[in-house]
Design brief:
Length: 358
């Protein structure tokens, strides 16, 4: 078409035409023209490529399992669960932070990544796809914390930081809508290392033995003991939410604190009891237990696009359960890992979202 005709097209017509380009193609072109880049945030593009709801996990991109390790300074390996292939993700946290500076990935939610940057006493929340980032100063100085959970909301996101001092702990909640931290009373119970699991508007935690389920309301800052009963003979327990309606429990079954088997449960319709879904085959149990070596505090679990993932900080592989097929599998080992790396493996579900702004 004659370039002069393009130049005379009304702005809304041009936006409408270009919105039909594949999003991946358009993203590769945005650096060529400021006008192209601005079109990403036009009504036509937002309505066409944003998910149905702000907390929906649907995305026009592939979904990935992301591996974070302190030896990866400027990149993270990604396993593409759509194409079944390994890829690399270059890291650029913020215009004010060099990738060479020490950052630790803590939590991922709906395309947003949250890093801790101790040298600047800050958290960095960023969306690598939209190239947006925000530096969030720690709520207190000096600051030590046991866990941090990033939760996407309809208006942005919230950070829950659990910090303990002596026998008591404190909950700090950051709201991206008002750019402020709020401090709430903690609880006098020890939570496991996994952090909170978001389900039906609340964050769910499991304590260390004796196991109990606790709920934290991000709006009111209040804690409550959940009426949900846990199965007997648990050696360890982890919660997983599918991000929609279902809450799962993965636990080791045994005696004297030693697991002999691994089971998966789903919360029943009454909201108080668990229905057994599946158990891990014996040969896979043996491998998993040899990996953990009874150090269950290193075990953590998460949901990823129909997969229930079970990981261990001291082992680079991922055990996952495919819900649709009711089958267990091991993820292929990352080719970038060396035999010398023996701990510090942190896996996350990463589903890129263009309009999850930091």
């Amino acid at each position: 078409m004659d370039p002069e005709i393009w130049s005379r097209l009304p702005e809304d017509i041009l936006e409408r035409v270009l919105s039909f380009l594949p999003l991946k193609t358009f993203l590769s072109l945005r650096s060529t023209c400021k006008h192209f880049k601005s079109l990403l945030f036009s009504p036509s593009f937002i309505s066409k490529h944003s998910p149905a709801s702000p907390t929906s996990s649907s995305s026009p991109f592939s979904s990935f399992l992301l591996l974070s390790h302190h030896q990866f300074s400027c990149k993270c390996p990604l396993y593409d669960t759509v194409q079944n292939a390994w890829r690399n993700l270059p890291l650029s946290y913020s215009p004010t932070v060099s990738p060479a500076q020490s950052c630790s990935l803590l939590s991922v939610s709906h395309g947003r990544l949250c890093f801790s940057h101790p040298s600047s006493s800050s958290f960095i929340v960023c969306n690598l796809l939209s190239r947006s980032s925000r530096v969030v100063k720690y709520p207190k100085f000096p600051c030590s914390f046991e866990s941090l959970t990033l939760v996407s909301t309809s208006t942005g996101y919230k950070l829950l930081m659990m910090s303990s001092s002596g026998s008591s702990n404190t909950a700090f909640v950051y709201d991206s809508g008002i750019h402020l931290w709020q401090q709430f009373q903690g609880i006098n119970l020890i939570l496991n290392n996994q952090g909170g699991v978001f389900h039906e508007g609340k964050l769910y935690f499991i304590t260390t033995e004796p196991f109990h389920i606790l709920c934290f309301d991000l709006e009111t800052g209040s804690w409550e003991r959940s009426p949900i009963q846990l199965p007997n003979q648990l050696a360890f327990a982890r919660l997983v939410s599918d991000g929609d309606r279902k809450l799962y429990l993965i636990g080791g079954i045994g005696s004297d604190g030693i697991s002999r088997s691994l089971k998966l449960w789903e919360l029943s319709g009454d909201g108080e009891n668990w229905a057994e879904v599946e158990r891990l085959p014996e040969m896979m149990v043996k491998k998993f237990l040899s990996v953990c070596y009874h150090k269950y505090e290193h075990v953590y679990c998460f949901w990823h696009e129909g997969l229930l993932c079970v990981c261990c900080y001291t082992w680079p592989e991922v055990l996952y359960y495919k819900v649709s097929r009711k089958t267990w599998h091991w993820l292929p080992k990352c080719p970038l890992l060396t035999e010398k790396w023996s701990c510090g493996f942190k896996w996350f579900s990463f589903v890129p979202q263009l309009y999850s702004f930091a």
